[in-house]
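yo

u said u wanted the structure for the complex thing, so here. seqs first:
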Amino acid sequence: MKYVDEFRDPELGRALAAEILTDVEPGRHYKLMEVCGGHTHSIYKYGIDDLLPENVELVHGPGCPVCVLPMGRVDDGIAIAHQPGVIFTCFGDMLRIPGSDGTLLDAKAEGADVRMVYSPLDALRIAKQNPDRNVVFFAIGFETTAPSTALTLMRAKAEGVPNFFCMCNHVTIVPPLRSLLDSPDLRLDGFIGPGHVSTVVGARPFEFIPAEYEKPIVVAGFEPLDVLQAVHMILRQLAEGRCEVENQYKRVVPYEGNLRALQVLGEVFELRPHFEWRGMGFISQSGLKLSEAYADFDAELRYSVPGVRVADPKACQCGEVLKGVIKPFECKVFGSACTPERPIGTCMVSSEGACAAYYNYGRFAREREVV
Amino acid sequence: MIDCDHITGCITCGDRAEPLTVLRVDEARGLALCANAEGLKETVEIELVAPVAPGDTLLVHAGTAIA
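structre next:
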């Protein structure tokens, strides 16, 4: 398949892995963070970390929007789903995220009308087909997904659909990265930047990482060769004493982003003063809400929600996994009390969650094969 | 269309997107009918990448073409 097969060529992969070997300084330990959950998934699906030298460690970042959602927001969503007459729509992975008292799937079993959709447009279609019911779309995702929600809201406004509402949980990628870089318990050498977020925002917003924190970042695609090449580019920067923003994913990511998408985001959303992230606490200006112009579509204004901050389960160490402080297998409940079938923490639910990626691809052990 | 389960992947999550080929464009509504390599069809919002033509490859995330 065009744009896919050529980035999965095993020969090229082995050649890149050999080149990476020449990039590393013996005795130095390299810790690189893949920010995005899509990369985490690719790394374990294709066994990319097994191709890397032993002293190159990949740690997982906070780039799975499902994983970073705090329990209180799930509870708020469930409260809306239980309102009379509501059809509650969300992406499939949200259904299994535990709130403090069950999941949306449990709410559905108790009689709430909860439906899975593949896109916000599907939710709008349901609203148009059910004019006597209020349809709430649980919007979640980084800047990759936010334009999709924004365009749907613009469409709803233009078509005058009065029974479509949005509970907005969209988040932005730069504030949590800054928070991680300011965190004293994490030493990172470089970042693999999020490819599809950058399709929207461009590579420019990441310039603060080399400028203020003197770390390299390479925006990368999601095929195995993309990730390997990004690691190679970061290590090459480190070897040459450079730190800059590089774009490995030029076939998709323009340096300035998608200007129309940014314009749409600016029209439909505004920044919340602060938003809670699982395991990372409140981060300033990291979440989006609907702007004044779209207040009529705001489910949080239409319905009262508990809005209670709920602590994560004690046994769950998702917060440390999300910050790259521990590996999934180092969590006390990984693979025992917490599995994809019965998840305790969010990282075990979504396929992009680091724990689920480890679990599904059989990464239970600490040992790695030395290349 | 990307499956939505904990093994094959999910739409939201994070940063997943899929290359789809444009089959037909509905310019009045700003939508395109697209298909993936297996022939599964999906209606896609094309506002961010317009103009598009049948045969173009789009990167689609949550029903919206982003590149």
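The CA atoms of residues 69 and 276 of chain A lie 8 Å apart. DSSP finds 14 helices and 13 strands in chain A.
cya
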